[in-house]
Amino acid sequence: MNKELIINAAPQGVEIALLEDKKLVELHNEKTDARFAVGDLYLGKVKKLIPGLNAAFVDVGFEKDAFLHYTDLSPYAKSLLKFTTMSITDKSETGLDFSKFTIEPEIIKTGKINEVLGGKPNILVQILKEPIAAKGPRLSCEISLPGRFVVLTPFNDIVAVSRKIHSSEERKRLQKIVEAIKFKNFGVIVRTAAEGKNTAELHEDLTMLQEMWKTIQKNLKGATPPTRVLSEQTKTTSILRDLLNEDFNKIVVNDRNLFADTKAYIQRIAPEKADIVSFYQNGSPIFDAFGITKQVKSTFGKTVNLDSGAYLIVEHTEALHVIDVNSGYKSVSNNQEQNALETNLEAADEIARQLRLRDLGGIIVVDFIDMKLPENKRKLMERMEEFMRPDRAKHAVLPISKFGIMQITRQRMKPEMNINTQEICPSCNGTGKISSTLLLEDEIEKNVSYLVTHKHSHLKLVVHPILYAYLTKGWFWKTKIAQWRKKYGRSITVQSDTNLHLTEYKFYDNHEEEIKL
User: 398-429: per-residue pLDDT in tens?
Assistant: First the structure.
């Protein structure tokens, strides 16, 4: 599979398109003034405790207080509170030595929010979900700093290896390496991308993350809430950090500064891939040149057409998303069950793409075409799980119910990508109504009368083909044009132009110059 990252920089922000085999699968929009992105760290102030919800509302500078539930506090919440206070009040020149920090006892899983945040303290938090609709950000105290190969988690000494690394020998190898090189008071999660990497590469990644932690300590010194302590990397670098592998063969950027930053980042994390970054400087927009604009227009509407003639209807409600699969006009075979299976499999592939592309989260209900055979239902579910495997968001797929419904849950971390693909009708200007054709004929004749009185001896009328057919229908001497010629005693011709709208018309004089009305 070939992966390409196309980056379109504009004054209002950066648009990032991820293509897999030339097909658009992810679209990200990073605004210039973006705040409260997933992964950002803030020093917040606990404003209100809600024992009934076992949660707290924290002021992090957003217009609405952010939400922090007890289950997101982390077992090391007391250590985090102690560290936050010590870092803020630290007056030493060298800064707080985190290797000598004393870890506090873990909090219990079934505890109460009042027991931990009773004094409404200042607290270091990480954005877990971006603000969505009327809700403020959702927070977590389980601080994690992601690198390319490992994730650093302070206040514990646990080393965990990704379950996606299936080889037990490789898992043991990575565990031993990380346990030998990790820093005190830090836990480490080994990512899937670390498979096959040597000690030097893992140590370099760990060292970079430790420097990031030192930056957090430095930014906390003397800080007052609410304030942003550390921002997540730009969307471009975070995508490259998480996705860059041997399948990537092209990164194209249309901004020189962003090109230099991307090139430098690739040079640092994967020097062998530095040549895949190129600067785009052709005249046409970069998304048009790579066919992304056309894919966006055809993909983000309410109706999504498939190659077989089948189509999806995507509906949004407050509680969930509903996708309806409708059969197409091309029959794979004469067997109805087989046709339903083939259409459903094609739809499943597109649905998995739609979830990533629109970043749909929460509960998704899919109404597939009814199938009777249990093995076909099982095959559809297995293929759905296969199609969704590349999706980085946490998700779960449930078996098809007896009503032919499949339920999918997908992690919601930010507002869904919603692009309006409809354009305002140039004829009605979005009202859905145009003036009566009978009145249009009168309007044109009034303009003919006006132009004749202003000494135009020859007039050429250019109209839409449908209007042309109306004006020239019947025997020549009974057409509207012939009647106008006779009535006003002037040479009047009519011509059709497909570029004009249905109710649009233009007049030209004998010098072929347009007459402005």
Answer: 999 888 899 999 987 666 666 666 677 776 77
- pLDDT of res. 382: 94
| Measured CA distances, 434 to 466, 495, 503 (Å) | 15, 22, 8
User: What does the CA dihedral 34, 37, 41, 42 come to, rounded to 10 degrees?
Assistant: 60
| Tokens 């048009």 found at | 288
pLDDT for 139-175, tens place per residue?
A: 999 999 988 889 999 998 899 999 888 899 999 999 9
Long-range contacts of 276-280 (CB under 8 A, 24+ apart): 276/248, 276/249, 276/250, 276/251, 277/251, 277/253, 278/250, 278/251, 278/252, 278/253, 279/252, 279/253, 279/254, 280/252, 280/253, 280/254
CA distances from 137 to 81, 404, 409, 413, 459 (A): 20, 36, 20, 10, 65
**Assigned CATH class of 301-410:** alpha beta
pTM: 0.68
Q: Which long-range contacts (CB under 8 A, 24 or more apart) does 270-279 make?
A: 270/244, 273/244, 273/248, 276/248, 276/249, 276/250, 276/251, 277/251, 277/253, 278/250, 278/251, 278/252, 278/253, 279/252, 279/253, 279/254
CA distance 426 to 14: 30
Query: Under CATH, domain 41-230 is a member of which superfamily?
Result: Nucleic acid-binding proteins (2.40.50.140)
